[in-house]
Amino acid sequence: MDMKFLEIFNGKKIAISSRWLDAMIASYPNDNSGFLMNQKDRFANPVGYTFTTGIEGIIEVLVKGEDFSESVSFLEDIIKVRAIQDFTPAKAMAFVFQLKTIVREELGKEIRQNQIYDGLLDFESKIDDLALTAFDIYVKYREQIYELRTDELKRMTFSLLKKANLMSEIPDQEVEHKDQK
Amino acid sequence: MAPKVKLPKPEELAKIEFKTPATDWMDTPVEFKPGTFCWGSKEKDLLTLGLPNPRQWSPADEDWKVPEGWETTILEGMAERLSKYRSFKIFMDICVRCGACADKCHFYIATGDPKNMPVLRAELIRSVYKKYFTKSGKFLGRLAGARELDMDVLKEWWSYFFQCTECRRCSVFCPYGIDQAEVTIIGRELLNLVGLNIDWISGPVANCYMKGNHLGLEPHAIAGNIESMVDDIEDITGIRVNPTFNRKGAEILFVTPSGDLLGEPGIQTCMGYLMLFHELGLDYTWSTYASEGGNFGFFTSNDMAKRLNYKIYAEAKRLGVKYIIGGECGHMWRVLNQYMDTWHGPADFLEVPVSPITGTVFENAKSTKMIHISEFTADLIKHNKLNLDPTRNDHLKVTFHDSCNPSRGMGLLDEPREIIKAVCNNFYEMPENTIREKTFCCGAGSGLNASENMEQRMRGGFPRANAVKYVQEKHGVNMLANICAVDRAHFPALMDYWNPGVGVTGVTELLANALVMKGEKERTTNLRFEDLPGKGGNE
Ligand code: SF4
Ligand code: SF4
User: Fold this and answer.
1) B266 lies in the same domain as B168
2) Beta strands in B75-200 (DSSP E)
3) Model confidence over A114-139: pLDDT tens digits?
4) Of B291, B302, B295, B297, nearest to B262 (Cα)?
5) Which among B86, B468, B497, B505 has most CB atoms closer than 10 A?
6) Does residue B28 lie in a domain region?
7) Distance CA B168, CA B408 (A)
8) Chain B interface, mutation test: which of A155, A161, A170, most B Cβ atoms within 10 Å?
């Protein structure tokens, strides 16, 4: 990664994180009281906390120019929340792309002055990779919602099947295994 | 040549306004998206119960097939309840909109949707109250926060009163003690007047009315399920426990939610009861008629709750027992502790519960004559009456979820903790503002633990799961203990989504695993047939 770009990025990371968080919170237009943004207790406001720590975590990884895979767990935490909040897939995921806009806007002047467009392009393709990963994560959790329903049904009926001698000799784990095939 | 498309310039792109405009809550109609609501009640169940407007309908349909003149039915229903329940009238009148409750509801915390703020949830009904029952609302209308009752309002009620788990967390923070759960209860009663309940409530209520329990288990199925648990207990401990059913003259009647009779990990909790009572030589009986401690009627209407509750005292009387012990359940205890005595008490034909083992008199149950299994067990432990080997639970790092009703509803805070500490060596509390009176709801109480609303359940349970995550990361917690059948049904899914690796258990299951029974063989597995720590592979 372009060192100059990273240096500039690093200098502005606080502003970038905070704008990214703003953008994310803006997808909750009805939160008029500003609760998601302002309540800092991590237990009283788990959504805000997950977003803040997630965003900071992802930015830290990007600033270091490291492989973005380091940031996947933060991405995962955020998407898990967005996956159950009534968003369309596009709306749930928009925040990843918003980072591009924010970085371009925040760093535009320095990038022009220093002629480091390549650095910006490099960075943006990282975000594209991040977005692809984000889609995989999103789909994984959406699918899990449906799996939870079937798992629940299994827990409810397993003892009945066992009782009816339909499964008596087969240990629990094996049954789960079979069902997964 | 292809026409030239005008592309926005980068600066224009950069100025994208992320914020979509907010609308006033009164102008924001409800949308019904799959995964976020429960199915509507079925025709056959409403017929069985003699409830109004039985028909097939779906909340996703435009037409909910409510009867002609439904507005009058609802408004008359409101008038009746305003005069009957002083609390309802007061809650409608005294809220000062201080906002103290606003961010205390798990559904609001997880969604940021203002209609899930307790204060606004109450406002959904208060705005209608103002329009039809106050002078200012009649004349000033919307200026005074009043609005007409129309179909959109009715749908909004249905959506948001079935997005409140009646957990009462908000009431803990309200300086006036306004209890949104009570407002929701009334809201649901009103909805029921025009046939608007959810299937997950009216189905179990109909079952309970016909068969005595929510699952619709008939007497032979109850006895059969318990017999198969008895077989499992014998395999694990070498001891054959011998429960009795409908036995006249027993000293104690035991009543538990039917969720303990079917499905994991409820059945392991039930095995725990069987083992504990056997070890004590308790003179007790099960009933296949009063076979449900829970009461989904409570999520329908006061009358329905009363109707379903009746069988408990009736059966106690028929069998001639002295008092009643109840199993691990949440809302069951709110009903037993706060309503049963008013509806069907005083139970003069019963005696004040006295533990036959320790002699402790349970003065707190002087009137209802029914005690909670955790009080009974904690008392045994306090008097050193049980032989316990907590190392059998050494592979577990346990945290405890206070179910809303036993904790906030009846103050049962320390007893389950005393039991856990006596039977487990590794116990870790979740953070202070998420437990005891301030506990976060599981997210699926008050009949909302259906499966079609899984997404909604994952939301509602997020604040609870988030606190579990903290102790999971900090202490390696891998087991979430509780004293509620709905918790046991709902938490496994919640944990799988938010905190994979955390299991779910009833407190009595933990106890039974640690309980050294007289004459037992050396145990190699726990009640789930998993190897005990240090005993694996020895078989
Ligand atoms: S009772 Fe519980 S679910 Fe209902 S509004 Fe209050 S905090 Fe929310
Ligand atoms: S805390 Fe009580 S008085 Fe204050 S807004 Fe909430 S319900 Fe109203």
Assistant:
1) no
2) none
3) 999 999 999 999 999 999 999 999 99
4) B291
5) B505
6) no
7) 7
8) A155
A164 contacts on B by Cβ (under 8 Å): none
**Torsional class of B195: left (φ above 0), alpha (ψ -120 to 50), beta (otherwise):** left
Taking each helix axis from N to C terminus, what angle separates A13-25 and A89-114, rounded to the nearest 10 degrees?
150
CB proximity list for B142: less than 8 A, separation 6 or greater? B26
User: How far A28 CA sits from the closest chain B CA (Å)?
Assistant: 7
> Looking at the domain assignment, is residue B238 inside a domain?
yes
Return the exposure string of A139-173: e unless at least 16 CB atoms fall within 10 Å of the residue's CB, then b: eebbebbeebbebbeebbebbbebbeeebeeeeee
Q: Across chain B, which distance is largest between two alpha carbons, in Å? A: 98
For residue B45, the CA-to-ligand 2 centroid distance in Å is 37
- B429-453 core/surface letters (b: 16 or more CB in 10 A; e: else): ebbeebbbebbbbbbbbbbbbbbbb
**Of B434, B344, B333, whose CA–CA distance to B375 is shortest?**
B333
Q: Which of A178, A130, A133 shows the shortest CA–CA distance to A154?
A: A178
Top pLDDT among B22 and B496 is at B496
Residue B138 predicted with pLDDT over 70: yes
**B145 secondary structure, DSSP code:** T
> For residues A156 and A148, what is the distance between their CA atoms, to the nearest angstrom?
12
Same domain, B364 and B452: yes
Residue B191 and residue B208 share a domain? no
DSSP A75: H
Helix/strand/coil for B526: coil
One-character DSSP codes across B290-353: S-----GGGGT-HHHHHHHHHHHHHHHHHHT-SEEEE-S-SHHHHHHHHTHHHHH---TTS---
Mean pLDDT across chain B: 93
Residue with CA nearest ligand 1 atom 5: B118
- Residues B293-341 have pLDDT tens digits of 999 999 999 999 999 999 999 999 999 999 999 999 999 999 999 999 9
Report whether the peptide linkage leading into residue B416 is cis, meaning its omega lies within 30 degrees of zero: no
pTM score, two decimals? 0.92
Q: Tell which residue, B533, B230, B237, has the closest CA to residue B390.
A: B533
Confidence grade of residue B14 (pLDDT, cut at 50, 70, 90): very low
CA distance B26 to chain A (A): 12
Whether ligand 2 lies within 6 angstroms of the CB of B176 is answered as yes
- Where does B162-218 have alpha helices with state H? 169-173, 180-193, 199-211
Kindly state the tokens that stand for A147.
């799996």
Per the structure, the complete domain to which residue A117 belongs is given by 3-148
CATH number of the domain that residue A48 is part of: 1.10.490
Name the amino acid, one letter, at B238.
Answer: G
Residue B255, helix vs strand vs coil = strand
CB contact under 8 A, A33 and B264: no
User: What is the number of structural domains in chain B?
Assistant: 2
Specify whether the CB–CB gap between B381 and B355 falls below 8 A.
no
Name the one residue in this structure whose structure tokens are 């087991």. B479
pLDDT at residue B25 is higher than 60: yes
Closest-CA residue of A relative to B493 is A148
Q: Would you state the pLDDT for residue A2?
A: 83
For ligand 1, what atom is nearest to the CA of residue B441? 2
The per-residue pLDDT for A59 is 95
On the question of pLDDT at A172 being above 50, the answer is no
User: How many beta carbons lie within 10 A of that of residue B4, not counting itself?
Assistant: 6
pLDDT at A26: 92
